[in-house]
TrEMBL record:
<dbReference type="InterPro" id="IPR023606">
    <property type="entry name" value="CoA-Trfase_III_dom_1_sf"/>
</dbReference>
<dbReference type="Pfam" id="PF02515">
    <property type="entry name" value="CoA_transf_3"/>
</dbReference>
<dbReference type="InterPro" id="IPR050483">
    <property type="entry name" value="CoA-transferase_III_domain"/>
</dbReference>
<dbReference type="GO" id="GO:0008410">
    <property type="term" value="F:CoA-transferase activity"/>
</dbReference>
<dbReference type="InterPro" id="IPR044855">
    <property type="entry name" value="CoA-Trfase_III_dom3_sf"/>
</dbReference>
<keyword id="KW-0808">Transferase</keyword>
<dbReference type="InterPro" id="IPR003673">
    <property type="entry name" value="CoA-Trfase_fam_III"/>
</dbReference>
<protein>
    <submittedName>
        <fullName>CoA transferase</fullName>
    </submittedName>
</protein>
């Protein structure tokens, strides 16, 4: 577990980000940019970001959901529907390198502070717009929500057990991937600005993110035209890539090639399985998975799951115990990788991207208030 690192040595040191976004995708983008050194000022409406009330749990009236997405930002409250708020945000845009927003299409334009209106006044700005469906097209301008996009993008149709109803992925995967896409887009645009001196619009939509997550199901459908179904924990293309029972706790196997399968069988004292023509190749194991799984579970019944997973990993066979959230966050390797950070009474997830010379730093806990960029100098 890491504690506060006051020094800002991040790769984005000197980049000023005006975060006008709410909920998840935009705020996650802003937090990642802030973790890597950007000076992020988050502007919230007078009543605050909606996620402040998305609980329990709460601390001092603020939900954990909000705290998990708004580190390394300073917060200023502003009514952008008012003339005063619009004047304030224009002044901030003049200083900023990046604007992140996820208002409904047309809202900022109505206020006179939309991208098309601001790009001429501030041509250096990289403007990141996070939307549900984009600004145009059959669904353009409609609001989008993670679970709804999971349904529309086909994700629910392939998630869950084959004999059960379609199932939402148990975390806001579409929102989070949209936030990651937004970060990628911002970094690409900043890199290009180094050549042209000009900003541009970064368009990150939840719908596109949801569709982009369909590998390998989309690739399979493009090739064979068969509509993918639900396969539970099992991989649609390779086997054993599934949760299997042991003598104690279940484990997940991720056997991706013939060598790994043979090593596993030898470790179990079942070398003959690797020579069986039904299981000798990856393709045959996938076709005959319904026969193979009970044979593996019979062999695993004499083993403790956690120890077996560790032993298999040690010989080069991908395997893992199935942990709950508490166990995962308290795992020794989680601490070693500095994936839990603490600042005062704030605890959150660490930055997953590690840079050797310019690492992430944790400078501001959520709810830190500020009125302007730390460095108001404008180099543009």
């Amino acid at each position: 577990m890491t504690t506060t690192q006051a020094a800002n040595v991040g790769a984005l040191q000197g980049i000023k980000v005006l975060d006008l976004s709410r909920i998840l995708g935009g705020p996650l983008c802003g937090q990642i940019l802030g973790d890597h050194g950007a000076d992020v000022l988050k502007v919230e409406p007078p009543q605050g970001d909606d996620t402040r009330s998305w609980g329990p749990p709460f601390r001092d009236g603020v939900a954990s959901y909000y705290l998990g997405l708004n580190r390394n930002k300073r917060v200023q409250f502003m009514d952008l529907a008012s003339a005063e708020g619009q004047a304030q945000v224009r002044a901030l845009m003049a200083q900023a390198d990046v604007v992140v927003e996820n208002f409904k299409t047309g809202t900022m334009e109505k206020w006179g502070i939309g991208y098309a209106q601001m790009q001429h006044a501030f041509p250096h700005l990289v403007w990141c717009r996070v939307t549900g469906f984009g600004a145009d097209g059959p669904l353009g301008s409609l609001p989008g929500y993670d679970a709804a996009i999971q349904a529309m993008a086909g994700l629910m149709s392939i998630n869950g057990e084959a004999d059960r109803d379609p199932l939402r992925v148990g975390l806001p995967v579409v929102d989070m991937v949209t936030g990651l896409n937004a970060v990628i887009g911002v970094l690409l645009a900043l890199h290009e600005r180094g050549r042209s001196g000009l900003g541009q619009l970064v368009d990150a939509s939840l719908y596109d993110a949801g569709i982009s997550l369909l590998h390998p199901h989309a690739a399979n459908w493009f090739m064979n035209g068969k509509i993918p179904g639900r396969s539970g924990n099992a991989h649609p293309n390779i086997y054993p890539y599934d949760v299997v029972n042991t003598g104690s706790a279940p484990i997940f196997l991720a056997v991706g090639n013939d060598r790994q399968f043979r090593l596993m069988c030898q470790h179990l004292g079942q070398a003959e399985l690797a020579d069986d023509t039904r299981f000798a190749t990856a393709g045959q194991r996938s076709v005959n998975r319904d026969v193979l799984k009970p044979l593996l579970e019979q062999a695993f019944a004499a083993h403790d799951g956690v120890q077996l997973a560790e032993d298999l990993m040690a010989i080069g066979v991908p395997a893992a115990p199935v942990l709950n959230v508490e166990q995962a966050l308290q795992a020794p390797h989680t601490a070693h990788r500095e994936m839990v950070v603490k600042m005062g009474d704030y605890t959150g997830l660490g930055a997953p991207v590690k840079l050797s010379r310019t690492p992430a730093s944790y400078r501001f806990a959520p709810l830190t208030e500020g009125t302007a960029f730390l460095d108001a100098a404008n180099d543009h």
